[in-house]
Amino acid sequence: MNVIETKIKDLLILEPRVFSDERGWFMESFNQRTFEQALEAHQLATPVFVQDNHSLSHKGVLRGLHYQLNPRAQGKLVRVVQGKAWDVAVDIRQGSKTFGQWVGVELSDENMRLFWIPAGFAHGFIALEDNTQFLYKTTDYYSKESERSLLWSDPELAIEWPIDSNTQLTVHAKDQEALTLAQAMATQSLF
């Protein structure tokens, strides 16, 4: 597995080994030992995964920026199994040197990359193709009481979403009404 560091130390892009021949290809989509070794090499704690989620989105669907408060915070290991998405993680760990900064990465069925997002980050993505299937493992169960969202278009975050005048954007009302990072800090404790 190839591990790519990002500008935020705890966020890692993982490229699995893919074996291709005339029949198609094979890869280990997840291997606990290999994942642990990759995190240990970067001096990161190894999580335990408890839930897998799978979503389907059409081109232009934007989901996020979602997170759960402690003690139900979730780390996520995400990948796209069909289609293409621009995936974003925002550091919301108060006191972190990279607080309020974000990393974006393209995930697709072609590049087969995985993105490790530990607890303490808000997460979202936009589908860049129709029928984009997004699969992710989480380190805690979904908790409606702990669920929160940051506004995907918060000007302070200045996330560079790949949106142009031709993009037919679809955002759920809940995500359109989410708090900015400043509002979230004023009304709740983050991490």
From TrEMBL:
EC assignment: 5.1.3.13
Catalytic residues, chain numbering: 66, 136
One GO location term (cellular component): cytosol
Protein's pathway: Carbohydrate biosynthesis; dTDP-L-rhamnose biosynthesis
Site residues (Participates in a stacking interaction with the thymidine ring of dTDP-4-oxo-6-deoxyglucose), renumbered to this chain: 142
Keyword entries, A-Z: Isomerase
Statement: the UniProt record of this protein carries the keyword Isomerase: yes
Reactions that this protein is recorded to catalyse: dTDP-4-dehydro-6-deoxy-alpha-D-glucose = dTDP-4-dehydro-beta-L-rhamnose
Superkingdom to which the source organism belongs: Bacteria
Entries under Pfam families matching the protein: dTDP_sugar_isom
GO annotation, biological process: dTDP-rhamnose biosynthetic process; polysaccharide biosynthetic process
PANTHER family registered for this protein in UniProt: DTDP-6-DEOXY-D-GLUCOSE-3,5 EPIMERASE (PTHR21047), THYMIDINE DIPHOSPHO-4-KETO-RHAMNOSE 3,5-EPIMERASE (PTHR21047:SF2)
Family that this chain belongs to: Belongs to the dTDP-4-dehydrorhamnose 3,5-epimerase family.
Subunit-structure text: Homodimer.
Entry-linked NCBIfam families: rmlC (TIGR01221)
Name this polypeptide is given: dTDP-4-dehydrorhamnose 3,5-epimerase
